[in-house]
Amino acid sequence: MEYNPNTDTYWDESALAQDMKTAFDICNGCRLCFSLCPSFPDLFKSVEAHDDNVDLLTDEELARPADLCYQCKLCYMKCPYIPPHRFDLDFPRLMLRSKAIRAKKNGMAPVDRFLGDPERIGRLGTAAPTLSNWSNQNPMMRQLMEKTIGIDHRRHLPKFAIMRFSTWALKRQKRLEDTDVAIFSTCTVEYHEPGIGQAAMNVLSHNDVRATVPSNQRCCGMPALDGGDIAGAIERAKQNVAIFARYAKAGKKILALQPTCAYVLKQEYPLLLGTEDAKAVSEATIDVTEYLAQKARRKQLKKDFKHRLGTVTYHLSCHTKAEGLRRSAKDLLSYIDGTTVNVVDRCAGIDGTWGLKAEFYDESQKVAAKLTEAFREAKGTTACSDCALAGLQIETAADSAPRHPVELLQAAYGLAPVDSLESEDQS
């Protein structure tokens, strides 16, 4: 099967159809992933309707599972047939290929074109954040947004920041030789959640780690991939690799502030670009929570905490799991005395742009039902997640946006307002 967009076979429609039929036949005979996402029940239903003969599947039946796939990567982790198995099955990448070919042939849908360019959205939104945030909460404006763009009017949307993270970080820039780690800030932090970036910088500084935020970063490219815009993803990957390769080659770690972006830099950039620089960036990239968790495991993280965290209800996001980081946040937060971490291992059903679309909103809520139930039952504890997009779903159940682990660490150190955290001297 072909997953490399830089080959002619990747873009061959007949080759894609054959690869998808082969994959669907394998999946139909296995069914380990039946309960993971809406793609597989839909796939099995279609195959069963043709008496298990995948050769009879229509173009629509082949495309539908790809549209329902939101790239959570859970099936890849569970699949016994992933490369280097002779079946060579990478279901998520095959679904991306389907979207890419259809986007190239038919053009991108307005909602994919809009959501696939978060930098443009971010620049416009942060130019007048008060007006933008008002619009995103106004029922009439949201109805109009759904009709014209395709973003569901019921979906909680991220707020635009008053000050972009790069603006805040500009005065804290360091030369390469004076840097221990470079921060890949992500669009989420840059335009919506600069507090995550500020917390990361403060915690790193407190632990004598010299961090810098290189200028002119782009989106990681995942939103473009979601809509089938391979060229847009490659363009962003090239610019980011050009910026970060010199840090990687100098032996510096690249800390990604969101799990999806860390995954893309590590797993997708080498395939999209196929260069030694992309490989170097991939190997140097690490999720910021895991970086700090490693220091905690080695007892290299300071323990001069001023406040306890109490009980933390932590959401383990799909892409965090896809990075193999099931214990990172728990190990990190448990390093703080007086902290209990309860892990909620459930999909949030947003996964990039998919859960924002009106077409899939109801399905998204079904996927997230167990997650929201868990956080509803955990009210009174501190909600936490590495993934700010998943936080949009959690917020509906917890009545407040969850904090990133680095924000909780910052508060525990006394480097930021404490809110409801317990003082160290309390019993």
Compute the average pLDDT. Answer: 93
Query: What's the β-strand tally?
Result: 9
Q: Write down the overall geometry.
A: globular
Question: DSSP strand (E) fraction?
Answer: 5-15%
Low-confidence stretches: 422-427
Q: Tell me about the largest β-sheet.
A: 4 strands, parallel
Placed side by side, the strands forming the largest sheet appear as: 2-1-3-4
Q: What would your notes on this structure say?
A:
This protein is an alpha/beta fold and 427 residues long. It has helices spanning 13-30, 39-49, 59-68, 74-78, 91-106, 110-115, 118-127, 129-137, 139-148, 165-169, 186-192, 194-206, 222-226, 230-249, 259-273, 276-284, 288-297, 318-322, 328-334, 361-367, 369-377, 388-398, 405-412; strands at residues 181-184, 211-212, 253-256, 285-287, 307-308, 310-315, 339-344, 382-385, 422-423. The strands form three sheets. A four-stranded parallel beta sheet has the order 2-1-3-4, sandwiched between helices. Strands 7-6-8 form a three-stranded parallel beta sheet. It is globular, with a radius of gyration of 22 Å. The N and C termini lie far apart (60 Å). Residues 422-427 have low confidence and may be disordered.
Summarize the structure.
By secondary structure, the chain is an alpha/beta fold. The protein has helices at about 15-30, 40-50, 60-70, 75-80, 90-105, 110-115, 120-125, 130-135, 140-150, 165-170, 185-190, 195-205, 220-225, 230-250, 260-275, 275-285, 290-295, 320, 330-335, 360-365, 370-375, 390-400, 405-410; strands at about 180-185, 210, 255, 285, 305-310, 310-315, 340-345, 380-385, 420-425. Helix 7 packs across helix 8 (about 130-135), helix 14 crosses helix 16 (about 275-285) and helix 17 (about 290-295) crosses helix 19 (about 330-335).
